[in-house]
Each structure stands twice: as C-alpha cells, then as structure tokens.
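Quick question, first post here. What does this chain look like in 3D?
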Amino acid sequence: QLQLVESGGGLVQPGGSLTLSCAGPGFSLDAYAVGWFRQVPGKEREGVSCITSSGGSRNYADSARGRFNISRDKVKNTVYLQMNDLKPEDSGVYFCGAKFIDTTIQAFCVSRGHGVEYWGKGTPVTVSS
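> Answer (accepted):
Ran it through. Tokens below.
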C-alpha cells in the first residue's frame, strides 16, 4: 500500500523552528492536495495547514497562521511545513495526508483528514524547555 513519509520532527525549545517534510515515494503527489494534521493524545486530530495540488492556495489553522508556512516542491515530490516561533501547544504527532479534493482547501483542512487517500506514519514534535 502506498504511503507518505514524514520527517523533520524532534525536540525544540519554545521560540525555535522546525521544518517538516512529506514525501511521496513511488507515486506523484502532483494531483493531490496535501495537508498537515496534528494528533495529541485525548484530542481529535486537527488540520494545521493544507495546500492545493497546484500550490496556489493554502489554508492555516488560527493557531498556525503567521508562524507556519506550507509549500510544495513538485520536482522533489515533497510538501514542507516550516514552523517558526514554536510553542508548547504545537506539540503532537504531525501526519501528512494526500487527497484528491473537489472542495475548497479550507474544507479539506477542517475535515480533520476525513477521506484522505494516503497517510504517513507521522513525525513527533515536542516543544519544551
């Protein structure tokens, strides 16, 4: 079964930065919207940021807007999430998911990943001093 591969998570101090990567080995992500979703124990998975297949539209959760930036590199078949000024509440396991969407990118992001066709196994992010 095809699966995405996330990387770049780790332990960082508050105020620090991380860049997460989501690669699609073995298949092209070109036709898919890709989202980053965060899972925290005891809470529902939430959409952090999503990007359309063309890269022309992006969506951010209120908590991420102004601090995070999502981008995609079609040559490298990879989607990135640059996270700056990290806060303890940003901690969690970050999953990327790819979906062929016929709705808005905002709708995809708030869907909590419903209907995602391809998932990765996640990369953990811990923001702590």
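The CA atoms of residues 43 and 92 lie 10 Å apart.
Residues 105-110 form the longest helix (6 residues).
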